[in-house]
Structures are given as C-alpha cells and as structure tokens.
Amino acid sequence: MPKFLIEIKHADDYEGCVRALDAIATLGSHLVSNADFGCEDGVHCGWLVVEVGDRREAELIVPPPLRADARVIQLRRWSPEEIAAMAKDLRA
To answer: Which end of the chain has fewer beta carbons closer than 10 Å to its terminal beta carbon, N or C?
Structure first.
C-alpha cells in the first residue's frame, strides 16, 4: 500500500493554529493524535504519514478548509541493493 506524507499548512498566528487544529479535530481524534505540528517552533504546519490506497485518498484526509494549502507527497524507501544498481547504471 502506498505511503504518503501529508503536510498541512496554516496561518502563522494563534488564531490560525486554533482554526487548523479545530478543523482537523472535527474529522476525528485519530487525526489529531497521529499528526505532528511545528507551531511551537514557528513552523505552522502539521505532518501526518499515512498508508492508503492512492493519492486521492490521502488528499481527502485533509479537512476541506485546509486542502488548498496542503501537500501530499508519496514516500518511498530505497534498499541498498536498489541504490547500488542505480549508481552502477550511472557509471556505465
């Protein structure tokens, strides 16, 4: 199953944080309990890693009022063998 990083940006003030958190909490406490936020360090984003069927499913996790500023990034881990094969191809 594909894995995605969801980045949810919001306004960089107290009101923006509260509005974003409230929108996320409205969708369910599981979302709040699995998301990490950088607000206390001045980075007004939340991040969530999910395994879902496809990109569209990941996009739908983001509350509608926050969707326009969100990013959904598909993640992948490379094995040492894959990296070695790619590097070998470059050298050939």
So the answer is: C
